[in-house]
Write a structure and sequence with these properties.
Blueprint: H1 14-28, H2 36-47, E1 52-54, E2 57-60, E3 64-67, E4 71-77, E5 87-93, E6 101-106, E7 115-120, E8 126-134, E9 139-150
Parallel strand pairs: 1-9, 3-9
Antiparallel strand pairs: 2-4, 4-7, 5-6, 5-8, 8-9
Length: 157
């Protein structure tokens, strides 16, 4: 009597089983990027339709990283951080990650300094977008390209 198809038997070697499992892992571990429409929608959902100006947001992030699993990022925004003029939030967007919205930081005049330091995961080489919202309603944008040699952010599904 023959065993049912797919049944593990003594004749199925561990090597065959591991090769099949590895093939499934490779198929299911490909990075899934957000499409450009998802990226625009994520930014619009976070900061609205206000125009984005450049110049006040400064990014300190390596241009080349070996491993996308832990990428150091420092964001500074030119602001006096007074009650009348301060940064209210900072958003980080990564278009090549499975979810384009990476993080959000809430600030206020009591922060004293408009600066945040963190580490992020990057799926692959891409252009990172950072948007700062100001207390007067204006939005400031900074972008930078990061080359990632070992990808992260694999979609497990």
């Amino acid at each position: 009597m023959q065993p049912a198809p797919g049944t593990f038997t003594q004749t199925t070697s561990r090597r065959t089983l591991l090769a099949g499992a590895t093939a499934l892992l490779v198929v299911h571990s490909t990075p899934v990027a957000a499409d450009p429409a998802e990226m625009r929608e994520a930014i619009r959902a976070a900061v609205g339709d206000a125009p984005l100006s450049e110049g006040r947001v400064h990014l300190d992030i390596p241009a080349l990283v070996e491993n996308g699993n832990s990428v150091p990022l420092t964001i500074r925004v030119d602001s006096p951080m007074t009650h009348a003029d301060h940064v209210t939030s900072i958003y980080v967007f990564s278009p090549e990650n499975p979810l384009p919205s990476v993080s959000r930081f809430i600030l206020g005049p009591r922060n004293g300094l408009a600066e945040v330091k963190t580490t992020i995961r990057l799926a692959t080489t891409q252009i990172l977008h950072v948007v700062a919202t100001m207390s007067d309603g204006s939005r400031c944008l900074a972008t930078t390209e990061i080359e990632v040699t070992t990808a992260a952010c694999f979609d497990p599904t």
